[in-house]
Amino acid sequence: MTVWNLGSVNADRFYAVPHIPAAGETLAATGYAEGLGGKGANMAVASARAGSRVELIGAVGADGGWMRDRLASYGVSVAHVAQVEGPSGHANIAVDGDGENQILILPGANVLLDRGQVAAALAAAAAGDIFVCQNETNLQREAADIARAQGLRVAYAAAPFSAGAVGRMLPVTDLLVMNAVEARQLEEATGTAPADLPVRDVVITLGPDGCRWIDTVSGQSRDFPSPRVSAVDTTGAGDTFTGYLLAGLDQGAGMPEALHLALRAAALKVTRRGTADAIPARDEVTGWQP
Q1: Residue range(s) defining the domain that contains residue 127
Q2: Is residue 54 in some structural domain?
Q3: pTM value?
Q4: What amino acid positions are annotated as catalytic residues?
Q5: Is residue 100 part of a domain?
Q6: Pick from 285, 276, 283: nearest CA to 40
Q7: What confidence tens digit (pLDDT) does each residue in 40-54 have?
Q8: Has residue 20 been placed in a domain?
């Protein structure tokens, strides 16, 4: 089967800082690096490195050729990553000594996707495939409508959080993934608890405490612990989790097995600096001893 990912592609610019800067503060960075990122690219790389066939639907500017090449080197199909006018998306990321981060994003090409491009890409999808999107591109609901009409399972990562975007996506979402902050924001915006959302499966990531899976049909909730590690960079951990979760489901695993795999991958990722370039391969995850 295939994971179809409507997602962002960014150049990630990392600045090592002694602490996360406060409002109005000028802070000298102690280190700098650049790599591949964007929530879509990160999830696509994670799913591909976990062993799934992945088709990324996205866009870069004229400056983004190196990002397409790097995605392809990680096993992601870039046949549907278009080149458009204007700059590629990029993110400036401050990372402190505890691995916590602060991120400033320019969407760039990521919000210039064309409806025809998306429809043409998904025309090749098959019933039983998985479709996933996030909130860093345009056309999420339009693409999800196409995917659902073709029998795909629709997954949605509600980040960066937008109450309006989530509201548009909930009616067509089968699997909702969000972190604890986003879950709280969604409940405040809608007045609806996660367990009462009109979504078959809700997964809430809990940072170092693991994740919670809510089966809204049965009404049951189950917590899964995460391996304990010393984090050096939490950037992209949630994307790694989501990409591995979808790959597990794509390859026939049940939700508990897929969640255990995703938690291991995310825990291993935070022991490495970087985003897409730091996502571990499947054999590294399964052979790892925390």
Answers
A1: 2-8+39-84+108-287
A2: yes
A3: 0.93
A4: 239
A5: no
A6: 276
A7: 999 999 999 999 999
A8: no
- Find out whether 34 is annotated in a ligand binding site: no
207 appears as a binding residue in the annotation: yes
Question: Is there a binding annotation on residue 210?
Answer: yes
Residues 60-75: tens digit of each pLDDT: 999 999 999 999 999 9
**208 labeled binding residue:** yes
pLDDT digits (tens, 9 = 90+) for 218-234: 999 999 999 999 998 88
Here the CATH number for the domain that contains residue 113 is 3.40.1190.20
Domain-located, residue 34: no
Give the number of domains in the chain.
1
The pLDDT of residue 191 is above 90: yes
Q: Per the annotation, does 97 bind a ligand?
A: no
